[in-house]
Write a structure and sequence with these properties.
Shape: elongated
Structural class: mainly beta
Distance between the termini: 42 Å
Oligomer: single chain
Mean pLDDT: 93
Number of strands: 10
Strand content: 35-45%
Number of helices: 2
Helix content: under 10%
Largest sheet: 5 strands, mixed
Order of helices and strands: EEEEEEEEEHHE
Strand order of the largest sheet: 2-8-7-4-5
Length: 162
């Protein structure tokens, strides 16, 4: 069976709770989810579709508040358990960035379009009032190949707190 995660997308900046949505099918309509970073994880089960072989949309709300993750980057997985041998099958995985590890009290993010001559320190000063918090921008934007080289028109995610 094929399972697919449509939300979040790869490297989205996410918070708590985490909404996971997609399309899937599981043996007796049962799927599992897991969110973790190799040290800590949270998981559970949910129903989808009408039974074996029938695909349907799903949306699961995952409470991450009770987990103390060590890393910013998490992996979201949806899978089913094989009725034959109990192994995990149809595993769909998406890497995401966990905002509450970056900014205390994370509430969401703002997009910033880089202007000519801007640096991460400049962007941090604009949004946080403190150029020294540029590291938050580096952590929230893993697509940056070289944090010292910003390109005009590039869009950065700026994680925000209260």
């Amino acid at each position: 069976m094929t399972n697919r995660i449509d939300q979040p997308r790869a490297f989205d900046l996410v918070g708590d709770p985490l909404l996971v949505a997609g399309v899937g099918a599981g043996f007796e309509a049962d799927l599992r989810y897991r969110v973790g970073e190799g040290h800590h994880e949270v998981g559970g089960a949910f129903d989808v579709g009408g039974g074996t072989g029938r695909h349907a949309q799903f949306q699961v709300r995952v409470d991450l508040g009770g987990v103390t993750f060590r890393l910013d980057r998490l992996v979201v997985q949806v899978f089913e358990i094989s009725p034959g041998d109990g192994s995990e099958i149809g595993v769909a995985s998406v890497p995401v960035i966990y905002g509450p590890r970056i900014v205390p009290g994370y509430t969401g993010y703002r997009e910033h379009t880089v202007a000519r001559g801007e640096t991460l320190s400049t962007v941090a000063r604009i949004h946080y009032g403190n150029a020294g918090l540029y590291e938050w921008l580096v952590r929230a934007n893993p697509q940056l190949d070289d944090p010292d080289l910003l390109v005009p028109g590039q869009v950065l995610r700026v994680p925000l707190g209260p």
